[in-house]
Amino acid sequence: MEGMPWHEIVEYYYNPEYKLPARSFYLILGNRLSQESQHCRSRLAAVKYFLGDFCSGPRRILDLCCAGAYPSRYLAKSSHDFFVGLDISPESLSFAKRKIREEGLSDRVSVELGDALNLPYKDKSFDVTFCIGFLEYLQGPQIKQFFDEVKRVTRNQFIVTTTSTSVMKKITYRLKLKDIFFKLYKVPHHHLYSAEEFVALLRQHGFPRIQLVEVADYTLVASVPILSRRRGRREKGVTQLREEEVLPKEEYSLSPSIWEAPLQAAMAAIARSREYLAPIWASIASSRRNLNHLLLSRMQFGR
Question: Over the chain, what is the mean pLDDT?
Answer without folding.
Answer: 75
